[in-house]
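Notes from hallway chat w/ T.B., transcribed later so I don't forget. T.B. wanted the structure written out for a chain they're using in a teaching module, and asked if we could keep both sequence and structure tokens in one place. Agreed to drop them here.
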Amino acid sequence: MSDAPGTALSSTDAPGAAPSGAAPHRADDAPHRTPAPGADASGTLDEALERLHTTGPERDGWLSNHAPMAVEALVRHGRAPAVHRWLDQYAHKLEEPPPPSRPVTAGDWHEALGDPARTTDWTRFFARELDGAEARPWREVLAEWWPRLLPGIAGGATHPVIRTGHAVRTLLTPGEAGTAPRRAELAHALGYWAARHRPLPSLTPLAVAPDAAAALDAVPPVPEQDGGIRARLAQLTAFPDWGTAPDPDTARALLTDLVTAATHRYATHGHGEPIMLVHAATAPNAVLRALPALPRELWAPSLAAAWAAAAAVTAAYTPPEAGPYATTSLTAEEVFERAAAHGDDHTIKFTDTALDVGDPLALAAAVRSIELNTPAF
């Protein structure tokens, strides 16, 4: 396996100190996924989602509304009492939804796909599918639309699929799946994904990579790492040959490895672009969270799409060299407590993914995100 050149510092070293020479823990070490916390009995998440469903998925024309994802992570990790206060402080980043245009229908949805001006039309379409007079079970709707949306997984800088993964996780939580706000959140997430659907350019396969970590290491950076993500993704030409699986169980195992490798890599490479590089881990983890709700025949194409998303973000923002990181003796709960106090939405979401991975390097990567990103409060 190819190790990143970044090195671990002891917990007593300064983050900027010279590397110690120790090889970082990588994805081939046995991963350990932290058990999910208990269900939310407070009703806070449903209250927060209802509050947020009066707002749009973006602001300033392209910046994503991260609040639905962040509050879901906060509630899931026992921070429900802080959610409304966090939303009060985030409120200046919220805008009204864009005005509706004309209804999306089962017969003409193709023409609305990838049109951000139709965001509200798409949200209303999925709201009818999930909670209208002829509503269908949410798993059925998800299974129908998942393969249609997967080719545009990188659209909206991967935020729509991440929001979908958080929404699906709430619907899969025992005892909580029947609430209208959670079905509405899935409608908002899928509507956002459909509106921002944007396939990647055609890509040439490079040499086969032996594992997820080596594949990420071998992703060639885009020639001009400047400007927004759309300009960067337009420069993509080739990815390492990885991300295929012969059966659903292998696909799930490889997707788990990808989430682990991308989370670990943030420890050594997150300094390249601390906010954007979190998506190399959180986007494939959103797909992993959705797998239990999807037919097994969709698992292998889901792996391929998740790999494309992680590789695209890596190519767009990876730095030329790895850097040192500090190990941590903090527990998972202590790390998330620090992320919640830090308040940055990307940091909260990345830490949530790091706790899913759950091993020492993942926790160190989460601490690194707390160090690198600007506190919200």
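Follow-up for T.B.: Confidence is low (pLDDT under 50) at residues 1-5, 9-36. Might be a good example for the class.
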